[in-house]
Amino acid sequence: MIAIAFGALAAVAAWAVVRAISDRQEDTHEKQLATAAIASPS
Amino acid sequence: MNDDFSKPPPGVDIPPDASRIPPPPPPAPARTSLPYAPGTTAPTLPASFVSPRPLAFTLQVIFGTWIVLTILGMFAVIRVRSASTAFLDGTGDFADATSADDMLAAFNLLNLLLTLVTIGVFVAWFYRCYSNLPALSNRDTDRNKKSAIWWWFVPFATWVVPYKMAQEIWTSSREPGKWGSRSGLIMVWWGIFQVSLSVMRLVQSWAQSAINSADSYEVRDAFCKPTPST
Questions:
Q1: Helices B161-172 and B94-131, packing angle to 10 deg
Q2: For labeling, which of B11, B41, B80, B180 is most exposed (least CB within 10 Å)?
Q3: Which candidate, B122, B166, B124, B121, places its Cα nearest to that of B143?
Q4: Residues sharing a CB contact under 8 Å with residue A5, sequence separation 6 or more, in sequence order
């Protein structure tokens, strides 16, 4: 029972980490797109 | 006719600082769906960036399923315990104990399958995030990209190296010059993850030793009870 509870806790923490890292990378990528667009007018 | 606009016309009082008020800024153009400046085209994207979102979404669904399965598993364990105790006490039915045991076995099988799927998808997501770092931060990664996969399966090193790589993913997922510091969230996650693995191993070893040294006489007695004559 304790192992199951710890497993669930680890799953919740992993869920938060996956979301935080993915959002961070997407956010940086969007900023790069915006910067590149301003720097390279057609 | 007064052509000198540097001075107010006669009879008009203007506060001394009014002429210094800057004109209001022009209204901001309406925001389009893409953040491109007018007259520009879509920039050339860094070829190596691939969005980690699809894998992240899959993982979140899996983790959600895992949590639901965990709650069901707790019920299964409680049911097996009460049914087997009742059977050994002679107050329960053998069919009840068998059914509870079957349910727990099904739960364990499902748990095993979900664990394998989770490992596969998580490692794929981790590799994807690590491979994105050169495109995001414009610098090389500390380790080979493919090592983001296999370090997870190297004994002992798996306690440390994947954590360092996760922190590298966090700090380097920013534009050049804006690399952040280590993440407290990753530290907490890694601590919980390692503790949960240790607890799981401990419980497995307890369970195995309990099976090995089980009081088989108790079980034998329960099975060999004379059936009541009808």
A1: 50
A2: B11
A3: B166
A4: B70, B74
Identify residues of A whose CB sits under 8 angstroms from chain B CBs. Answer: 1-22, 24-26, 28-42
Chain B residues 75-104 with a CB less than 8 Å from chain A: 77
Give the nearest chain A residue to B42 (CA atoms): A37
**What is the residue type of B102?**
D
Chain B CA closest to residue A36: B43
User: Which pair of tokens denotes residue B123?
Assistant: 């490692």
Name the E strands within B64-121.
Answer: none
What backbone phi and psi angles, to 5 degrees, belong to B13? -95, 125
| Each residue's pLDDT tens digit, B98-152 | 888 888 888 889 888 998 999 999 999 999 999 999 988 887 888 888 999 999 9
Measure CB to CB from residue A37 to each of B40, B129, B166 and give the nearest one.
B40
Bridge partners, B40 (sequence order): A41
ipTM for the predicted complex comes to: 0.89
Q: Distance of CA B212 to CAs B200, B209, B217, Å?
A: 18, 5, 13
Which residues of chain A are within 8 Å of residue B46 when distances are taken between CB atoms? 32
